[in-house]
Amino acid sequence: MRLRNIPSARQELADSVYVIDEASIADMRGRWAEHFGNDHPVRIEIGMGKGQFLLELARRNPDVNYIGIERYSSVLVHPVRKLEAMKQSSQTIDNLLLLRTDAEQLNDIFAPGEADRIYLNFSDPWPKDRHAKRRLPGRVFLGRYEKVLADGGAVEFKTDNRGLFDFALEEAREAGWIIDAYTYDLHADPVMNEGNIMTEYERKFSELGNPICKLIEHPMTQST
Ligand code: SAH
Question: What ranges make up the beta strands (E) of the chain?
Fold first, then answer.
């Protein structure tokens, strides 16, 4: 995500009911259901960017709670503005919350089993070997996801970056995760593409002619 600094972003985040105040994020651990006021499943997108994917998911599935994580205020301000504008026009979305934080904090934010799905869309590739542990589909993060996911939960990853995708497949095997399905050309795969919601990056890169790869995986420790 190319970062254009938006000086008002932090204040807009602080003023929005959709954003959990940074200082209180850790207090929510184990209490997300209480916060949403229901026991619907909780699904997380890490690196949500401008939020097209997650807003559309939340709109389509009112009986699922969604939490978007994004580390930059100047990026997170975009979904915040969309949600605030929808509220003004009485199209309020009440099953979505946003967190401005780094996904490295995941296990301080969610208790074991608190989420049943994690979405990674067009994650940063971190091409240098020494940065491999920062890659969101890599084994360090898989270890974090495993703690957060409920039984039957899964990770869904989309990218047009073939190198990062092959790395993700390799890491899944190394970490002992089960690969439920994968494709190197999502938009040409009628089964995996059914109900697909395009992200901003997905639209941009597929318009350039890049095939989109998708992987669905879950940890071996689950009973399913
Ligand atoms: N998912 C969007 C944006 C992809 S760009 C889309 O598909 O269109 C990747 C986004 O992930 C960027 O906005 C970046 O700031 C965010 N991101 C990358 N690593 C992160 C991390 N460790 N924690 C939180 N956000 C992260």
Answer: 42-46, 65-70, 96-100, 115-121, 149-159, 177-183, 213-219
Which atom of ligand 1 lies at the shortest distance from residue 123's CA? 9
Q: Which residues are catalytic?
A: 124
pLDDT in tens, 158-205: 999 999 999 999 999 999 999 999 999 999 999 999 999 999 999 999
Nearest CA to ligand 1 atom 20: 47
Ligand 1 pocket mutation pick from 120, 121, 124 by most atoms within 8 angstroms of CB = 124
Phi and psi at residue 24, in whole multiples of 5°?
A: -100, 0
- Give pTM, 2 decimals: 0.97
Q: 20 near 97, Cβ under 8 Å?
A: yes
Instruction: Indicate which atom in ligand 1 lies nearest the CA of residue 134.
Output: 22
- pLDDT tens sequence across 106-161: 999 999 999 999 999 999 999 999 999 999 999 999 999 999 999 999 999 999 99
Q: How far apart are CA 144 and CA 138, in angstroms?
A: 10
Alpha helices in 66-136 (DSSP H): 73-88, 106-109
What is the rounded CA–CA span in Å between residue 95 and residue 44?
12
**H or E stretch covering 34:** helix 32-36
> Ligand 1 centroid to 223 CA: how many Å?
31
The order of strands in the sheet holding 213-219 is 96-100, 65-70, 42-46, 115-121, 149-159, 213-219, 177-183
